[in-house]
Amino acid sequence: MRTSTINSILACLGTACLVSCGNQKQSLVPNKKPNILFIVVDDLGYTDLSVMGSPFYETPNIDSLARSGTIFTNGYATCAVCSPSRASLLNGQFTARHGLTQYEGAKSGQAWKELNRHTKLLPPEYKHHLHREDVILPEVLKDNGYTTFFAGKWHLGSKADHSLPTDHGFDINQGGYEKGGPYSGGYFSPFNNPQMMDYPEEKGMSLSMKLAKETSTFIREQKDSTFLAYLSFYAVHSPIQTTQAKWKKYRDKAERMGIAETGFEMERVLPARKYQDNPVYAGLIEQVDEAVGSVLQTLRDLDLDKNTIVVFTSDNGGVTSGDNFSTNQLDLRGGKGYQWEGGLRVPYFIYVPWMSQKGTHNQVPVSGADLFPTLLDLADIPLQPEHHADGVSLEPLLKGGRIAERPLYWHYPHYGNQGGEPVSIMRKGSWKIIHYWEDGHTELYDLDTDLGETKDRSTEKEILTLEMKEELLAWLEAMQTEYAEEDASWNETAWKQKLENNRNILMPRLEKQREKMLSPDWQPNTNWWGSQL
Q1: What is the DSSP letter of 199?
Q2: N or C: which end of the chain has fewer CB within 10 A?
Q3: Tens digit of pLDDT for each residue in 114-160?
Q4: Which residues form the Sulfatase N-terminal domain (predicted)?
Q5: What share of the chain is helix, strand, coil (3-state, %, to 5)?
Q6: Do the domain assignments include residue 437?
Q7: Does any domain span residue 213?
Q8: Is 149 exposed, middle or buried (0-12, 13-18, 19+ CB in 10 A)?
Q9: Has residue 528 been placed in a domain?
Q10: What would the pLDDT profile of 461-489 be if each residue is shown by its tens digit?
């Protein structure tokens, strides 16, 4: 299943695209500006949905949404970690341009070294939050008559920075602040979130459903206005937590599918999960799916589904290494934090109710930076390329047309907690180059024939590699971006020892944790809230 799943899906989707795009018809355009429901799931991998090929996770509500609109099979986040990608979703720029190249709160320079990371390079300083002068999607929509609402994970600044959602065009903020996870209270009420009220009747409610509840309340209150509801789930970020019933459902399913003797293998730096068989993570995904279904039902109940655009995506790939080592991306290599497709490719769906999109699949490479201009176009608001400088409107693709071919760029001059290295990347057509800043070498992959990035073609395609590298470096120079620097006192011996420890100490510990979680009598604690190991 693992080696053929995505290739089989893409082959089918390619056929579907030829049929559905050619037959696409437009329904009547609404006589008022459309509402927008923008859904972002944290750390949800490309294949972490059944509609995207997972044989393990069950996501009927999200699947139905995807099949009602356009599935972009080459949809990308602009970064393999959260804050940079989240900034791009809002400002329409690649990370090298907007400068927020690392997740908020990460150390750089000597402060990084003092954490005993033992890396060859020292990561550079970076922009830590959105600035007041940054013009982002909700501000433009608000200027055009929209009431704007934010719920969930923000991770783009704090109250002290004057960079909460309400500082950037959102009228209402439920739960968004500087933290990147539900660290105050976890995934079950009470949540102890300083930007959101807890209520006694919510005891035991999942955080995903709480955010859905607040979003639905906003939609009901604004049903006669025009609104943006930006629903940004904290899930499925660590700590992974679920209920006993959901854990048992997926533990039993894993057993029926056949539990492999070992569950991890070494990547370059950290162990990586080999299979989708984590029952707690599966339960957490199902909680998100239930929450999404709840909000979509609210739209239907209020007869707003006929004039509400729905966007669904993730901020980066699923976590195969680091954090809770939660998932696997089937045919894609790596996951969150990594430079490979598993870290960058994400679920990417757009539903426009007045377009007959059902069954449409599109293989054009698109980016999270494209959503800002796309939504302006769909709302008949003039584009603002001076702000969404790297994003392009995907409205022509949604209508069955074309957009100009262009390269996509990534710049991550940092080390990821999940094993990622300082790299810059460009995809052009089917070709993808990865330039490594530690030693200056460049890898080249043909994603049409090697989705798993197993065969470096840089030696074979030397001229193409050089041309793409020159184009990438010229673009980075134009962006005046920052780069990692050599650590003059790098301790190579300590670094090699760390890698050995990851293999000989960490990986066996992960295997034992997996074995416990999949055992029929596993009991993480007395109440099951906080069911991570």
Answers
A1: -
A2: N
A3: 999 999 999 999 999 999 999 999 999 999 999 999 999 999 999 99
A4: 34-381
A5: 35, 15, 50
A6: no
A7: yes
A8: buried
A9: no
A10: 999 999 999 999 999 999 999 999 999 99
The model's pLDDT over 350-382, given as tens digits with 9 standing for 90+, comes to 999 999 778 799 999 999 999 999 999 999 999
Contact assessment for residue 171 and residue 142, using Cβ atoms and an 8 Å cutoff: yes
Beta-bridge mates of residue 70: 350, 360
Question: Does the pLDDT of residue 1 top 80, yes or no?
Answer: no
168-184: b (≥16 Cβ within 10 Å) or e? bbbbbbbbbbbbbbbee
Average pLDDT value for residue range 215-226: 98
Tokens of 285: 């995904």
Collapsing DSSP states into helix, strand and coil, what is residue 219? Answer: helix
Residues of the domain holding 289? 5-27+36-422+483-517
C-alpha angle 367/369/372, rounded to 5°?
Answer: 125
Domain contains 498: yes
Token pair listed for 502: 């990851």
Q: Quick check: helix, strand or coil at residue 98? A: helix
- DSSP track, 388-452: S-S----HHHHTT-------EEEEE-S--TTS--SEEEEEETTEEEEEETTT--EEEEETTT-TT
